[in-house]
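During the reporting period the student researcher (J.K.) took over the structure-prediction task from the postdoctoral fellow and processed the backlog of single-chain submissions. One of the processed entries is reproduced below for the supervisory committee.
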Amino acid sequence: MKPMTDKELASKHHIESLTKADWQPLFDLIPKIENTEGFGTWEGGDTDENGAIHLLYAVEEPVIGAFRELIYKMGLIVSFDWAAWDEGREMANTEHFDFDTVDVFTKCKIITAIARNDRFCSGALLDAFESGIILVLLKSIRRQVG
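J.K. obtained the following structure tokens:
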């Protein structure tokens, strides 16, 4: 494992300094996520009568926007090479991975990778909500924070 950059270390220290009260707005989303039946729809992906192509894009439920806003506002987005982080990709893609076995910082790195990927691949965050990984990560963070 390569050593952390100064930016990663700063993010780790910030995340570790957050209190339970700091985390509470994010934890307040858990019941909203649990009670959401569909996290969004896909639109576009067609051609109109003039031959213009409309790209496929995700239309998200408000809970996803609230989550996105909070993770940025709380400083949970870690500056690191998320696209090359194979360890995190493996964790996120392993069905029934026990996220309680990794620290909160690692869970935030996974959230970062998903959120950053969403900027390049529309619907990545929507897919993460639909797969349940966001809910699993939030519950694991809540257990670890206390």
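The committee noted the following: The CA atoms of residues 12 and 94 lie 24 Å apart.
J.K. will present the remaining backlog at the next meeting.
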